[in-house]
Amino acid sequence: MSNLENDPAFVTLEDEPCNGLEILEPRDVPLGGPRAMGVRRTLPQRARSLIGAWCFLDHYGPDPVATTGGMTVPPHPHTGLQTVSWLFAGTIDHRDSVGSHALVRPGELNLMTAGSGIQHSEVSTPGTTVLHGAQLWVALPDEHRHTAPHFEHVVPEAFAFGPATVRVFLGELLGRSSSARTYTALVGAQVDLPAEATVVIPVDPAFEHGVLVDAGSPLVEGHPVADAHLAYLDTGHASITLTAGDAPARVLLIGGEPLDEQIVMWWNFIGRSHDEIVAFRERWQHDVIAGEDPAGPFGHVDGYEGRALPAPEMPNVRLRPRE
């Protein structure tokens, strides 16, 4: 998914110290006009920029497509990151400039590695009546951020762990691992828990973790976490205890080793400096929007009827680290 804000904030991402557990509140972000769908964004924000290499988290739905119009995101660029598409309901048609054409379905991972540059489109299918899911980004470490772009589709197997049902879509958890390629030590999993049930999930204490609540009102380490909120746990936790309330709970568990790198993110680009972001934007506008070099690093998306998405204007200040 693109960041469709007309005036996207620039964010310099770096690890921030934390003791214990933090609750991060979502920010409502509209993705277009008055009828367009909106998302609830919990990463990045002022209180917390990164969880491991996870740097962006949009949570949306359940939205009736008849009201919102569904998802229609024209071709748009990415650099220096991986996009993680995960659905609970509905279907999205994905096309990208490395020739991939795949459907995003509930319980199936679509992982797109942008690397040196890619563009893609995302459109909900005509048969989709309700759209509900999450879009996450993973920042690529400096040594891999110029890797060749590629796409992977993985269907993780659901398995029982105590009363919970778990799907590991990235990295490793509970002795299960995803076949999807990652470039830093990561975990991403969906955990479903029946009403009134408790599960204690062993985790890597070298990781920091986030628990996004999608359904129910569970306790995370004994703390209530509201719907669409993100609980952050610092490194040093060897387990995470989840307790469902009087309704079933569903959460996304993400985590990873602290990235230990400072990165600059603006619109759909991740780089390391203001000048690099400017260069990405200029190349996109020149090659794709102006049509000067369709064979450039962002390539072309076949099968999408319509124009690519122009980049917003750069802010009138240099992108620089927060104090």
From TrEMBL:
InterPro entries: Pirin, Pirin_C_dom, Pirin_N_dom, RmlC-like_jellyroll, RmlC_Cupin_sf. Belongs to the pirin family. Its cofactor is Fe cation. Residues 190-286 form the Pirin C-terminal domain. One of its GO terms (molecular function) is metal ion binding. It holds the Pfam family Pirin. Keywords: Iron, Metal-binding. Residues 39-138 form the Pirin N-terminal domain. Residues 304-323 are annotated as: Disordered. It comes from Galbitalea soli. The lineage of its organism: Bacteria, Bacillati, Actinomycetota, Actinomycetes, Micrococcales. It comes from the Bacteria. Gene3D superfamilies: Jelly Rolls. Fe cation binds at H76, H78, H120, E122. This is Pirin family protein. Binds 1 Fe cation per subunit. SUPFAM superfamilies: RmlC-like cupins. CDD domains: cupin_pirin_C, cupin_pirin_N.
